[in-house]
Amino acid sequence: MRILIFGPPGAGKGTQAQFISKRYNIPHISTGDIFRENIRNNTPLGIEAKRYSEAGELVPDMVTNAMVRERLLQEDTADGFLLDGFPRTPAQADALEHMLPEGTKLNTVLNMIVTEDEIISRLGKRGRSDDEESTIRKRLRIYRDTTKPIAEYYRAKGILTDIQGIGTIEDITRCIIEAIEKHK
Ligand code: AMP
Fold this sequence. Notes:
The chain is an alpha/beta fold. It has one domain: Rossmann fold, CATH 3.40.50. It has eight helices and five strands. Helix 1 crosses helix 8 and helix 2 crosses helix 3. It is globular and about 40 Å long. It binds adenosine monophosphate. Adenosine monophosphate binds next to helix 2 and helix 3.
């Protein structure tokens, strides 16, 4: 299973991704987590990523694409993966097509839908360094202008499923599993 989980910051992608990754036994690849780990360890990638992520901006495509390309070459992705937080730009979506092994396709793209008011209220409570209100607003604007349009590209391919991100975690997980089963 090759799955993308898509949605604004604070939509609950990470929480749901953990369930899916366990249930389908596929690695959960979160670009945000990989950047944060590199920032913690002060690697060259982390040093580069830090200035963007702290400002609520996207790390440049060249850097992000190279990182994902390398991750997808690792053996644990042979039977599938769950990508969380990638692609976020049209250039990343394009690059991803070329990273997939010959003859394989994405099974499904889960599009988590949550209103901006709800997101601002949730993220304010999370307490991460990039969760200050002005940074959240910037991240939401980038999501709306740059990332959200990609969903339509996947919708046109017939592999996108809208998932309402409001409700209990269990209810949302159930909707997600249903969507995955349909696209197996
Ligand atoms: P996230 O945890 O997914 O919200 O990601 C945290 C931060 O990492 C983002 O605000 C960006 O600075 C950076 N980041 C994560 N994924 C990407 C991506 N696909 N493209 C560019 N920057 C990213």
